[in-house]
Design brief:
This protein has eleven helices and 47 strands. By secondary structure, the chain is of the alpha/beta class. The radius of gyration is 44 Å and the shape is elongated. One of its GO terms (biological process) is regulation of apoptotic process.
Length: 604
């Protein structure tokens, strides 16, 4: 790379280090070499370094003759009236010199102004540009670019092909991405209320970190006590969730340029619904959402465990009418009421979804310490949420409560170890529940009662203290392709005029009968596998009824089907085999229509 050259009219001679390491100025070629008037220079060494030094420094000791030995450089530098080479860089020489101790005047050369060169005078600009653009090593350029913001990187990418390639470096965008969003894996946001972590190997984008940055860029951040290095033109940051929501409300309907509703620039409005990132921390704010806003946890490692919303009074997170495309994901919701408080908490929840709203709740951890009510409550006509991939466990009450004509889709959730039922469905509520894992509850797994409805598909229900699935008081659920097993009592319990459709399920290894039907209940049990029960397969008693058809009932400890005490079911087209205590057992005024069943290979 060409460099600026500087010329000087003064030269230097370096003396031996044994005699001092200071530089000694020589007379300029443009000036007279005559010695100073007060001290004659020796004639035998005219113009030499020693002579110039002796002449300028003056006599040494008591001998003042011209033949006196020269003063060493160190002594010369400390002699009053002498100026060090640093004086050469001054713009103007001193006005006069103080006489030395011997009364003789000191000798000095006038300081000269060093010539300056500008870039246009001494450097070829085109060569510098070529070097920066084509010859600067990639490692150096990447180090420089790592200090830029995302907007600056996009501008630099437009300079040339090489800059475009380097600014799309994966590691460069990964570092920038994690400084803003903190995620360990790129989070893709292909559509409203849809978020998915995708590994860099499985992502179709050339640069997954940059693509994720592009999709999430319009969001604002709640990051307590955080000050970004460069706020200009970047995402907004707030200390509280409430202040972020107030900002969104103020901006609703405004132009994206920030000029308000009177702006005429015709820029497109900001993406809707608004996106708010909640960074790691404990938030104890009262939070009620009645608009389209997306709330998502933002942290490294396990995101949901790092972002916690907790309340001691009132519900932790409430979605109200108007939240039709709202979202809450990747966070922990806790309701921890004060044990000494006299406030009633039977209507306070970790998560509450009320009338006429349809939010999405995704990948949340939900915990409630209240001994009444439920951890999650969905109630009211028009309540239609999507709750998926959530962990509703270790609650001191009901896990999920759906009531009062509410609907919704509930899928791939972990519901376990709750003090009461894992799920309650009541009062004409009609949810769709798929692929949930409901286990080790201290009560029933799923309880539908008082005209509760619902469609339950492919759920795994096991190891609950009471029945895996209970139907009571006019409830009429549809249960298909579920596995109900290892219950501490029965598998399915239908009583007090309960109804229901149980089709293509696997019901096995329960301590009591696989299916209980009693007290004027009338369910349909069709095409189920009912096997390996510690008692009977299907037990109908106490004026129970029902349609029992096309089931495969085998390997149970007692009778495959037992009918007693004025019960009157329809039993047909079943295979009943390999039981340890008979096929069909009717006694104690039991009756019913029993036809075209295949009964064989029973022991007794």
């Amino acid at each position: 790379m060409p460099s600026a050259s500087f010329s000087s009219s003064r030269s230097y001679v370096r003396r031996s280090r044994r005699k001092g390491g200071h530089r000694i100025p020589l007379p300029s070629r443009t000036q007279s070499t005559e010695p100073c008037e007060s001290v004659p220079c020796p004639n035998n060494v005219p113009g030499s370094a020693m002579a110039a030094t002796a002449a300028c420094a003056g006599p040494s000791g008591s001998g003042g003759g011209g033949g006196s030995p020269p003063v060493p450089a160190a002594a010369a530098a400390s002699t009053p009236g002498h100026h060090s080479p640093y004086d050469l860089r001054r713009k103007s020489p001193p006005a006069y010199h103080e006489p030395g101790p011997s009364g003789s005047g000191a000798c000095s050369l006038p300081a000269r102004k060093r010539p300056r060169t500008s870039l246009s005078q001494g450097v070829d600009v085109s060569n510098v540009s070529q070097y920066l653009q084509y010859e600067l090593p990639d490692e150096v350029l990447l180090c420089i670019l790592s200090h830029l913001t995302e907007r600056d990187l996009c501008r630099v990418a437009q300079v040339c092909k090489r800059f475009n390639t380097i600014t799309n470096d994966t590691e460069l965008w990964k570092s920038l991405y994690q400084s803003v969003f903190e995620y360990d894996t790129p989070l893709m946001h292909p559509a409203p209320c849809q978020f998915e972590f995708v590994s860099t190997e499985d992502c179709e984008a050339d640069n997954p970190w940059k693509e994720s940055f592009r999709q999430l860029y319009y969001g604002i951040h709640v990051r307590p006590n955080y000050r970004p290095k460069n706020q200009s033109g970047r995402m907004k940051h707030f200390n509280t969730i409430r202040s972020a929501l107030e900002y969104i409300e103020e901006r609703s309907g405004a132009c994206s340029c920030g000029a308000g509703s009177t702006c005429s620039c015709r820029r497109p409005p900001p993406p809707c619904p608004a996106l708010v990132f909640l960074h790691a921390g404990l938030y104890q704010e009262e939070l009620a959402v009645d608009s389209d806003v997306q709330l998502i946890g933002c942290a490294s490692g396990n995101v949901a465990e790092s972002v916690i919303l907790e309340r001691e009074a009132e519900s932790t997170l409430t979605f109200a009418e108007g939240a039709t495309r709202a979202y809450a994901g990747h966070m922990t919701l806790k309701f921890s009421p004060d044990a000494t408080s006299t406030m009633q908490h039977h209507k306070h929840y970790c998560l509450e979804v009320s009338d006429n709203c349809s939010p999405t709740v995704d990948h949340c951890v939900i915990r409630s310490a209240s001994v009444v009510g439920a951890a999650v409550c969905v109630s009211g006509a028009g309540a239609n949420p999507v709750i998926k991939h959530c962990d509703i466990s270790d609650c001191e009450n009901v896990g999920l409560y759906v009531t009062d004509y509410a609907q919704g889709a509930y899928q791939d959730n972990e519901i376990s170890r709750n003090a009461l039922a894992g799920i309650w469905v009541k009062n004409f509520a009609n949810p769709i529940m798929r692929r949930n894992h409901i286990h080790h509850g201290r009560d029933v797994g799923i309880f539908t009662f008082e005209n509760g409805l619902g469609y339950f598909e492919a759920n795994d229900i096991h190891n609950n203290r009471i029945a895996g699935f209970e139907v009571k008081a006019g409830a009429n659920p549809t249960v298909v392709h579920c596995e109900i097993h290892h219950g501490q009592t029965g598998g399915i319990y239908v009583h007090e005029s309960g109804l229901g459709q149980f089709i293509d399920n696997k019901i096995h290894s329960n301590n009591f009968a696989g299916v209980w039907i009693t007290s004027n209940s009338n369910p349909t049990i069709r095409r189920n596998e009912i096997y390996n029960g510690h008692q009977g397969g299907v037990y109908i008693f106490g004026e129970g009824r029902g349609l029992i058809e096309h089931n495969n009932i085998y390997g149970n400890a007692l009778a495959g089907i037992q009918i007693r005490t004025n019960s009157d079911p329809i039993v047909r087209h079943n295979k009943i085999h390999h039981g340890q205590h008979g096929g069909i057992y009717v006694h104690e005024k039991g009756q019913g229509l029993i036809e075209e069943n295949e009964v064989k290979y029973y022991i007794k």
